[in-house]
Amino acid sequence: MGKKDISGKEFFAERRRFAELFNAVIYQKKEVIHAEELEPASGNYPSFSGKGELGRDIFMKDRKQNICYGLELETESDYSMPERIMVYDACEFEKQIKLILKEHGEEQGEKEKFVYRDKKSRIRETEILLPVITVVLYLGTGHWEGRKRLSDLYGISEEMREALRGRLPDYGFSLTEADYLDADGFATDLKEFFQAMQCRSDKRKLKELLKTENFRWLKEDTARAIAVYLDRERLIKKAEEEGFNMCAALDELLKDERMEGKTEGKIEGKAEGEKEERITIIRNMIREGLGHDIIQRVTKCSANEFALALTEQGEFI
Asked: How far is CA 4 from the centre of its chain?
């Protein structure tokens, strides 16, 4: 499990953040989910092969509403994501039915309550399953490029899709993209997290953002998550140290920029020096009376460099 997996799961599994994210994505910012009513649950299931497990990133049960919520954190697009979510949900429903069957087994002394239909169904008419709502949070840059519905994976013609409209098995999930969320609309430190994500491609904006008051003293897990998802090695190192704060992170970010600036400056300076040296050689060859074709073939100079050398020699092209 990589650093992003660990930090992301730790960050988003905090119940206040989880509730606010799902209220924003699923319930249009209405406070339907309350943190105190959420209960972490296992989202791990036996794999179909019998080896290993299938596992959700984060899974919560709302005790009041009797609804389960799954969150998948993705930094790359997954073309088979609809099928994966469908399998997770099917495994969850099977898990719920097995728990009901276990309860039935504990009621063996009440056999008169069981009829053939109950045994075939595995649940009684009055027993229920808890629905599952899954959100895929895309933490990569730009837009999600994977499929959003199971039917997008079907290799059938548009004519057949139309003929089967309403009958074609389908499955989907709710998708939200970090770069396009309303970061300022969050009350928890999801605000700072998504603000940082939306500035990751613009060093100047990111630097100014990290200078703001809200970023001066973030919670440790928030600062670590930001550092990891920004892919800043210096920030990650600082995030793993005791007493990490965003002021120190800003210093490390500025160090990175200074180092990058020095490297870029050296490269640009070297290239400029090589260009000047090549032009000097061209001028000397012109003075020696060598033909233009020979000079260009030997020095491999560009047309602009050759033109510049000719102009400074007082010649015309």
From this structure: 9
Instruction: Please name which of 257, 143, 146 lies closest in space to residue 210, comparing C-alpha atoms.
Output: 257
- In Å, what is the CA distance from 209 to each residue of 48, 181, 189, 194, 251? 47, 17, 14, 11, 13
Q: Between the CA of residue 133 and those of 17, 54, 104, 144, what are the distances in Å?
A: 17, 17, 27, 19
pLDDT one-digit tens code per residue, 193-227? 999 999 988 888 888 888 888 887 788 888 888 88
Count Cβ atoms below 10 Å from residue 44 Cβ, excluding itself. Answer: 14
Judge whether 150 and 172 are in contact, CB under 8 Å.
yes
Beta carbons of 204 and 216 less than 8 angstroms apart: no
Could you tell me the end-to-end alpha-carbon distance of the chain, in angstroms, rounded to an integer? Answer: 63
Token readout for 4 is: 């992003």
Predicted confidence at residue 236, as pLDDT, reads 61
Q: What is the pLDDT of residues 65-106, one digit of tens each?
A: 999 999 999 999 999 999 999 999 999 999 999 999 888 776
DSSP tag of 178: G
Distance of CA 95 to the CA centre of its chain: 28
Q: Which long-range contacts (CB under 8 A, 24 or more apart) does 141-146 make?
A: 141/179, 141/200, 141/201, 142/177, 142/179, 143/177, 143/179, 143/180, 144/74, 144/77, 144/175, 144/177, 145/77, 146/77, 146/78, 146/79, 146/80, 146/81
- Report how far residue 133's alpha carbon sits from residue 89's, in angstroms, rounded to the nearest whole number: 9
Q: Under 8 Å CB-to-CB from 271, ≥6 apart: which residues? A: none
Strand partners, 177: 138
Considering Cα of 252, then 254, then 257, then 258, what sign does the dihedral take? negative
How do strand 38-40 and strand 58-62 relate by DSSP bridges? Answer: antiparallel
Q: How far apart are CA 196 and CA 201, in angstroms?
A: 10
Query: What is the pLDDT, as a whole number, of residue 113?
Result: 61
